Automatic annotation (TrEMBL):
GO molecular function, one term: glycosyltransferase activity
Pfam families in UniProt: Glyco_transf_4, Glycos_transf_1
Protein name: N-acetyl-alpha-D-glucosaminyl L-malate synthase
Superkingdom as given in the UniProt entry: Bacteria
Domain annotation Glycosyl transferase family: ranges: 214-364
Domain Glycosyltransferase subfamily 4-like N-terminal: 38-201
InterPro entries found in the cross-reference section: Glyco_trans_1, Glyco_trans_4-like_N, Glycosyltransferase_grp1
Amino acid sequence: MKRIKIALVASYPASLVLLPDRLKPKYRNRPEHAAPWVRSLTSALVKRDDVEFRVFSHSRAMSSVQNGEENGAKYTFIPKYEPVRIGNYHFHLPARLQFRKHIKAFAPDLVHGFGTESAYGLIASEQGLPSIVFIQGIQAKLAPYYDQFSFAQKWLRQHFERKVVNRASGLVAETKFAEDWAQSMRPEVQVAVIPHAVNPEFFKVNAQYAVDECLCIGTLNRTKAVDMAIRSLAATKNRGLKLSVIGSGPLAGEMKGLAEELGVSERVKFCGHLNRDQIIERMSKARMLAILSRMDTSPNILTEAHAAGLPVIGTRAGGIPDMIDDGKDGFLVDVDDFHSAAGKMDHLSGNPDLCRQMGQTGREKVRWLNEPDRIADLHVDFYRNILGL
């Protein structure tokens, strides 16, 4: 069987690969987005003899191009200079120009970009090579909740998304929701439904359900609807139930004010950013996770909660219903229906045995569905299909 070369173009934390002296001082101890779906996929791909790959990523953490290796996987980090504030107004031109020569030098058979909404998807789709792009956040669905962006920024994000979908040789969707959207945009495009690969560390969690606590993990913005988690807590009958909000974001101050306004500030703990090990520690004690997003394509934290053995309360939004078996490994509620969410919180809070039963059901589901080697197999099959091999 022919060995194929794949260029993966994706966000990846340079601090996980490069030694501190190769990073700018201010980035040496700064937390970066862990891109767990990329890391779990590469950890499986690196074990295969039929694939050679390299990850190309943009980073502000260094001043010059840096190559590195982590657990056998090879990376090229390209310095990012353009200011954050100009966003999409530069049409991703700096990244598109920077990446081209490095990808060309690697000479891949196919380029796999992560994010139809990002520079990575655009870069992957314009190399003059077969390409697939992984669908992350769907801008056409998220735009109504982007209060932080101007009309022009929203339009540009959707413009690039359409361009990527129309250019890519194939698309990877994690859920049926994403598949349906992709085919509505371009009916003839090849779409493979492949869930993200879960980090196996979450299967090591020994869930005790000992603390009457609900976790809410995500960016504090309108999309993730942390306000609904706080309102749901305030509407619960069990006043002993607590909520831990893990994450940061533009609405942090507003969320703290809401907790005070509703009289639940003593029951809500704002933890800020926590690393993976700290999140795992919290999951080992809590009884449930609530993800009450107003829109979400395929939240990675939901799969991680299932792997850790936690039942999940989620909304009927985006791809979340594709990831929760209602009444079996969690519960579904309508968007912004905090009264229903409160009822589900009360139900799980008062019944740790049910938490354990539902949690184990979810764990067994994702143990097969999101197992990294299986996900790598599905990706390689899709690569070969696109290449006609």
